[in-house]
């Protein structure tokens, strides 16, 4: 499996792998305002803790669910930041300018990210628990600042599949990624192109 890719299942039961490219866009997979509320998971601290341990935050530095400490207030914090990203990321993907108030909200969220420590048994890095909701938001906000304030903003894309609203940061070397997943929208496009070319 590609590092940082998530196995997603849509409402029709199709599974596919999706790499959002960074944590602030990965957070959009936890749900959002309608119509994305059907994917909402920010209601149960234990579910979110597991989600965090499977997120790209843990690439390189492992984190166990018991090392994530989330209160209902933390979930509100994450949700508020996610709402900001739902407003900002689609605008960036279309080459537009996000609202200054939302950029200020992202700035305000850049706080104290999780800290690393040495695992005394393995001698390797891991995240120091307990990781809080504010730290998760801080890590995502730093990604957002790096993404929006640099040339990376040119690589924020919405999947070109019809009716697909998945947003990602294109980290491919040539910068020509068009689809959320070749398994899903890329394949559908190939099939429809083939059908259109076939003489009837
Ligand atoms: Zn797609």
Automatic annotation (TrEMBL):
Residues 155-198 form the Zinc finger CGNR domain. This is Putative RNA-binding Zn ribbon-like protein. It comes from Phytomonospora endophytica.
């Amino acid at each position: 499996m590609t590092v940082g890719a998530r196995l997603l299942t849509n409402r029709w039961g199709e599974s596919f792998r999706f790499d959002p490219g960074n944590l602030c866009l990965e957070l959009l997979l936890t749900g959002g305002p309608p119509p994305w509320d059907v994917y909402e998971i920010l209601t149960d601290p234990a579910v979110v803790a597991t989600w965090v341990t499977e997120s790209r935050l843990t690439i390189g530095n492992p984190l166990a669910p018991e090392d994530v400490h989330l209160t209902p207030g933390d979930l509100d914090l994450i949700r508020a930041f996610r709402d900001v990203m739902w407003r900002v990321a689609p605008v960036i993907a279309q080459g537009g300018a996000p609202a200054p108030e939302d950029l200020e909200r992202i700035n305000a969220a850049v706080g104290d990210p999780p800290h690393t420590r040495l695992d005394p048994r393995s001698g390797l890095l891991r995240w120091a628990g307990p990781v809080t909701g504010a730290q998760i938001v801080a890590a995502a906000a730093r990604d957002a600042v790096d993404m929006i304030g640099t040339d990376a903003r040119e690589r924020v894309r919405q999947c070109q599949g019809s009716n697909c609203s998945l947003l990602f940061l294109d980290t491919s070397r040539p910068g020509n990624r068009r689809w959320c997943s070749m398994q899903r929208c890329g394949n559908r496009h190939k099939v429809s192109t083939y059908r259109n070319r076939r003489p009837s």
